[in-house]
Amino acid sequence: MANKTIDHAITATSLKSAATDPTHAGILSFMRRKYTKSLEGVDAVVWGIPFDAATSNRPGARFGPQAIRRASAIFDNDPQYPFDRDLFEDMATIDYGDCLLDYGNHAATPETIRAGAETILASGAFLLTLGGDHFVTLPLLRAHAAVHGPLSLVQFDAHQDTWADEKGRIDHGSFVGRAAREGLIDTASSIQLGIRTHAPEDCGIRILYGYDIEEMSAGEIAAVILRHVGDRPAYLTFDIDCLDPAYAPGTGTPVAGGPSSAKILSVIRKLGALTIKGADVVEVAPAYDHADITAIAGSTIAMYMLGLHAEQLAERRG
Ligand SMILES: [Mn+2]
Fold it and tell me: Is residue 84 scored above 60 in pLDDT?
């Protein structure tokens, strides 16, 4: 039974069940989840990292978490399409708020993010992070790999993010190369989807380029991912610039020739057999957005990731 309240983010009496706030009103949190720092009895955590100092082109992803939360108000009390269930019926889920970063001390940022993620993961909860630019995935991978070992990275992105890097640089275009060198990801079972630029190295990671995605069906794309990753622990990272700028104009480094949100959502829907240990949605920069197109896409992708986890939890709990 849903809580009959407004401002569910602060008035909720349970971490479960859908909220009933009007879509146009009330305090915002991701899908109106309880806004709390308490990790007790929590199955899933949504966390924001408002950081964009590693962007190479247009900054603004520091406003991503707020924009995604606002857009997520469209997910009301109804069963969530296409999952046909209240995602929160049995999945205690909170909005943990944002990671507090010192905008004047970027050198401290990676460790602040890693330590925050470590605290959340220590509770045993599933972590879904809202970026922030794509640099934030590196410290997130450090925290997840410390728990699960090297992860199969499933990366939706227009860019490989494998640019060469010197120790200590904070760059949203090099996190994959760094993660590979640090042994955070199992490159042989990792895969990148929607790539439409070239970088000097592929780190041995499988790539489905933009033109591959264009010619394949959602089912074919999902089948490649499932075969490549198998039952290894996986981390899903979704750079919103994977989508064509028509579907995600509000991002820092848009690249033409990408897939539609409809096609990619169909792919994600078919990834339920993956062993997903963590996920993020990054690079939503609302200042370049129109009519919330990008924020809605980002919040829907985030909702799908929670939906997959809700299904897996339900299956585990019988
Ligand atoms: Mn990226």
Answer: yes
Q: Is residue 86 part of a domain?
A: yes
Whole domain around residue 83: which residue ranges? 8-317
Question: Cα of 79 to ligand 1 centre, how many Å?
Answer: 31
Query: Which tokens in the block code for residue 304?
Result: 């799908």
- Residue 195 Cα to ligand 1 middle (Å): 10
Q: For residue 87, report the distance from its CA to the centre of ligand 1, in Å.
A: 28
Q: Are 178 and 138 a contacting pair, CB within 8 Å?
A: yes
User: Ligand 1: distance of its center to the CA of 4 in Å?
Assistant: 40
Alpha-helical regions (H) of the chain = 8-11, 64-71, 109-122, 137-148, 175-181, 210-215, 218-229, 261-269, 293-317
In a domain, 245, yes or no: yes
Ligand 1 centroid–CA 312 distance in Å is 27
Please enumerate in sequence order all residues whose Cβ is within 8 A of that of 36, keeping only pairs 6 or more positions apart, or say none: 94, 95, 96
pLDDT (tens digit, 9 = 90+) per residue, 7-39? 999 999 999 988 889 999 999 999 999 999 999
Average pLDDT, stretch 106-128? 98
CA contacts within 13 A on the Cβ side of 273: 12
Instruction: Render pLDDT for 257-284 as a digit per residue (tens, 0 to 9).
Output: 999 999 999 999 999 999 999 999 999 9
Q: Distances from the Cα of 242 to the Cαs of 9, 185, 212, 279, in angstroms? A: 30, 20, 13, 15
Q: Which residues surround ligand 1, an ion (CB under 5 A)?
A: 134, 157, 159, 161, 239
pLDDT of residue 218 exceeding 80: yes
Q: What is the CATH number of the domain that holds 201?
A: 3.40.800.10
Q: CA 32, 40, 314 angle in degrees (round to 5)?
A: 70
How remote is the CA of residue 221 from the centroid of ligand 1, in Å? 19
Is 84 within the bounds of a domain?
yes
Number of domains observed in the structure of the chain? 1
In a domain, 1, yes or no: no
Classify strands 233-239 and 206-209 as parallel, antiparallel or unpaired: unpaired
